[in-house]
Design a protein that fits this description.
73% helix, globular, 15 helices, 0% strand, mainly alpha
């Protein structure tokens, strides 16, 4: 299908949804990437970009040119990746300024909606490998779910905004961008660096944001290759682990909790549960629509292939 202005805008909006989610504590950019169908493109494209840059840096001093680097760059779907990255950056900034305060003011209702979204999204990695789960797969998923549940229940720390701390925090937080179920903003909130980072965006603190961006690039370049390797060589088991992480991380989105992660007595249950159902229904409808679209494409492809006598 040829690229058009509409497809670039569509990919920018999909990337924008991922970027906006990263500004909201508890919302996983990886999960949103799964919902909007960008996950494989982002992981694969980022992995090839890292390999290309690494090979270019290694080959130029040896006089080998950049052919091996160009070979890696050719594997990147730039028509999807570039608009998506532009959308991510733009919407991340807007969400930090506009959506984050709104979520903070109506945390219970926002978390209820996102809880339903992520709960329905568990179906994507659960069925993503197209293979049957066995008893030990459920056990592995349960172990990682328990780990995610424990980590997302930890109270927040209060680390200093020293450049080294900011660099390391950004390197860790960006890994959540490619791990469905884990939220980079939630990690920053746990470390006590969410508010300083949001303030730096609003104040255009170039020094802070430069250190943060460098940490993100470093963490992403190291982690994305590992995840790409696992998806290519241990696809089913990787999806089992991701399913467990997503399930356990629902603890971060439980609507009835305070700032210290303490579970509270449920209040305003009807409205909160209704928002959970709405969030669940949105993703369920998207999954059904995507499945029907894929079946129609497969049927159309089958009709185009001539039968052999």
């Amino acid at each position: 299908m040829p690229n058009s202005v509409g497809s670039y805008i569509f990919n920018a909006v999909r990337g924008g949804a991922v970027g906006a989610s990263e500004a909201l504590p508890g919302i996983s950019g990886g999960t949103v990437a799964l919902i909007v169908g960008l996950y494989d493109k982002l992981i694969g494209g980022a992995g090839h970009m890292v390999s290309g840059i690494r090979r270019y840096v290694a080959d130029v001093p040896r006089g080998r040119g950049s052919e091996r680097a160009r070979e890696q760059f050719r594997h990147v779907d730039w028509s999807v990746l570039v608009p998506a990255l532009v959308g991510m950056v733009a919407f991340l900034g807007m969400a930090a300024l506009l959506l984050a305060p709104l979520v903070e003011a109506h945390t219970q209702y926002a978390y209820a909606l996102f809880f339903g979204l992520v709960l329905a999204c568990l179906w994507i990695p659960y069925t993503g490998a197209g293979r049957r789960w066995h008893a030990w797969h459920y056990l592995v998923a349960l172990v990682f779910a328990a780990g995610a549940f424990f980590l997302t229940g930890l109270p927040g720390a209060n680390l200093p905004t020293h450049p080294v701390v900011v660099f390391l925090a950004a390197a860790v937080a960006v890994c959540a961008l490619v791990l469905p179920g884990l939220s980079g903003s939630f990690i920053l909130l746990t470390l006590g660096l969410y508010e300083p980072t949001i303030s730096a965006v609003g104040d255009l603190d170039v020094a802070y944001l430069s250190v943060f961006a460098l940490g993100m690039l470093t963490g992403l370049s190291l982690f994305v290759k590992l995840l790409q390797y696992l998806l290519e060589n241990f696809h089913h088991m990787t999806l089992v682990v991701l399913t467990g992480l997503m399930a356990g991380s629902l603890r971060a989105l439980w609507p009835w909790q305070d700032e210290d992660r303490t579970i509270l007595t449920p209040t305003d249950v009807p409205a909160t549960v209704a928002l959970m159902v709405v969030g669940f229904a949105i993703v369920a409808a998207a999954i059904v629509w995507e499945r029907r679209k894929r079946l129609r494409m497969e049927e159309a492809e089958y009709r185009r292939v001539p039968t052999r006598v």
